[in-house]
């Protein structure tokens, strides 16, 4: 059925629960997984001539985001290995998370995106998440939206 499944993560507890469910689903199908973290692009100061002395440079920002992304993707990679699944990890930079998720799915020839259904807190618990909604509207491949049940 599905041979390569994209698992987006933002490092949150909800995202981790969704990735865990995605790995279980992939294991049932013996599918490969591609775990992706999308970081925002470096934001240049409004006045480029006057760089704040305590602000990170673009290189420092990129390095910090790489380290952060690695910390979010490592548990996915380890869980996939424990389940006997092949796993690629991808770190992307883009201000449009949804567009980058769809682009990554295309780039890595994924035939399914498995992602969470809703936001992290407040009203977001009851409505479909904005990134998920955008992915659904942009994507030409199936998207399995996983709903986390709260006890």
Automatic annotation (TrEMBL):
CDD domains given in the database record: USP-like
Protein name: Nucleotide-binding universal stress UspA family protein
Top-level taxon in the UniProt lineage: Bacteria
UspA domain segment(s): 1-145
UniProt-listed InterPro entries: Rossmann-like_a/b/a_fold, Universal_stress_UspA, UspA
Transmembrane parts of this sequence: none
Family per record: Belongs to the universal stress protein A family.
């Amino acid at each position: 059925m599905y041979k390569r499944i994209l698992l987006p993560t933002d490092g949150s507890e909800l995202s981790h629960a969704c990735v865990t469910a995605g790995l279980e689903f992939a294991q049932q199908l013996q599918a490969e997984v591609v775990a992706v973290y999308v970081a925002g692009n470096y934001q240049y100061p409004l006045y480029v001539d006057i760089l704040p002395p305590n602000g990170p440079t673009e290189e420092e920002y990129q390095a910090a985001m790489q380290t952060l992304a690695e910390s979010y993707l490592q548990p996915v990679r380890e869980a996939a290995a424990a389940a006997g699944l092949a796993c690629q990890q991808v770190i992307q930079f883009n201000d449009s998370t949804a567009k980058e998720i769809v682009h990554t799915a295309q780039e890595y020839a994924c035939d399914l995106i498995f992602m969470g259904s809703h936001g992290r807190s407040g009203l977001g618990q009851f409505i479909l998440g904005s990134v998920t909604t955008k992915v659904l509207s942009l994507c030409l491949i199936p998207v399995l939206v996983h709903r986390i049940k709260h006890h």
